[in-house]
Structure formats: structure tokens, C-alpha cells
């Protein structure tokens, strides 16, 4: 398997088109994570079925969020994407998120070329309000059976705020690579 952090860049952040590697298909309760030490996907745990992911879940290569992992992405598609698929994605916002007291933001994206919906999603306000509610409910509650109150969606940010979060994560990656 290719090491995504070696073969892919974060993409054109200023242009709003980034590279995303999918870890978890939408609808899955398998917590699959990229293990950068061995450059492979690993099943970390199986979540309760009621907490299946409401969107695809992946990461941006060559980034580090404040929690020490690659920066997470919530990738909205009409069909689930398989683990290991990578694509160019359009940034449409950010979910500001805290997990066990650590910042663990999620960049919200859609495929950069989505001819099925005519590339209709350009900001969070273009997504169905019900989907935003479901995402927020999921992330506020997915650890409630094990560690109640340990996760919190703090706010939602626009494309400019998402790009700033990505750039900070690229700087962290570059600093640790030295």
C-alpha cells in the first residue's frame, strides 16, 4: 500500500481543492484509522451500530491537527466511499470540535467534481439542514455510552475558517518533519 503522506500533498488549499484519503465509509460503525507509523489502515475499534458515521470520514495528507493526528475530513457524498479511496475535494466549511479536551476539528468537503448534483455544494448553507443536525448529534453523542460528555461540537465555520485550520495543520506537519 502506498504511504499517502509521501505520495500526496494537501492540495491547493488557497484554491479550496484539497486531497482527501477516505478512512471510513458513510454508514459504517467501524472506526478505521490511518496508522502513519506502518502506512496502513487499521481497525481501531467497532462503535455501537447506532453511531455509524453520517458521512464518509477521512484525512488530509501531510497535515497534523492539535490532537497529533492528520486533520480529519467529513466528506459528503450520496454513496459511501471505500476505505483507501483518495480524491480531490472542495472545502465547504469546518466543524469546530473538542474530543476529551483536545481540539479535533473536522473539515467539511464534497467531491471537487460532482456532476450528479451539478457541483451544487459550495458552502455549509448548501447542505441540507437535517444533515448538519445529524452530523452535530453524532459527534456530540458517539462516545456517550463509554465517556458521556467527552465530545462537543463547538461551532461551524465557513470556507475561509476551514482554510485557516488546514494551513495551521500543514505548518504543524512541516514543523514535525524537520
From TrEMBL:
Protein function: Catalyzes the hydrolysis of inorganic pyrophosphate (PPi) forming two phosphate ions.
Subcellular location: Cytoplasm
Highest taxon of source: Bacteria
PROSITE patterns: PPASE
Name recorded for this polypeptide: Inorganic pyrophosphatase
Annotated keywords: Cytoplasm, Hydrolase, Magnesium, Metal-binding
Coiled coil: none
Cross-referenced Pfam families: Pyrophosphatase
Keyword Cytoplasm: yes
HAMAP family linked to this entry: Inorganic_PPase
Gene3D superfamilies (UniProt xref): Inorganic pyrophosphatase (3.90.80.10)
Cofactor: Mg(2+)
Main localisation: cytoplasm
Catalyzed chemical reaction(s): diphosphate + H2O = 2 phosphate + H(+)
Binding locations of Mg(2+) 1: 67, 72, 104
Chain residues that bind substrate: 31, 45, 57, 142
Organism: Neisseria montereyensis
Family indicated by similarity: Belongs to the PPase family.
Entry EC no(s): 3.6.1.1
UniProt-listed PANTHER family: INORGANIC PYROPHOSPHATASE
Metal-binding found in the keyword field: yes
Residues at which Mg(2+) 2 binds: 72
Complex formation: Homohexamer.
Amino acid at each position: 500500500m502506498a504511504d499517502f503522506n509521501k505520495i500526496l500533498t494537501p492540495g491547493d488549499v488557497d484554491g479550496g481543492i484539497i486531497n482527501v484519503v477516505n478512512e471510513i465509509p458513510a454508514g459504517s460503525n467501524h472506526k478505521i484509522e490511518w496508522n502513519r507509523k506502518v502506512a496502513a489502515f487499521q481497525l481501531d475499534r467497532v462503535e455501537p451500530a447506532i453511531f455509524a458515521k453520517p458521512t464518509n470520514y477521512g484525512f488530509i495528507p501531510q497535515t497534523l491537527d492539535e490532537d497529533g493526528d492528520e486533520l480529519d475530513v467529513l466528506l459528503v457524498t450520496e454513496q459511501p466511499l471505500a476505505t483507501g479511496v483518495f480524491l480531490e475535494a472542495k472545502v465547504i466549511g469546518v466543524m469546530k470540535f473538542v474530543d476529551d479536551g483536545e481540539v479535533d476539528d473536522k473539515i467539511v468537503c464534497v467531491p471537487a467534481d460532482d456532476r450528479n448534483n451539478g457541483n451544487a455544494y459550495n458552502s455549509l448553507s448548501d447542505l441540507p439542514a437535517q444533515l448538519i443536525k445529524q452530523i452535530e448529534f453524532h459527534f456530540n453523542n458517539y462516545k456517550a455510552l463509554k465517556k458521556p460528555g467527552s465530545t462537543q461540537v463547538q461551532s461551524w465555520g465557513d470556507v475561509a475558517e476551514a482554510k485557516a485550520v488546514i494551513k495551521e495543520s500543514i505548518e504543524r506537519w512541516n514543523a514535525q518533519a524537520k
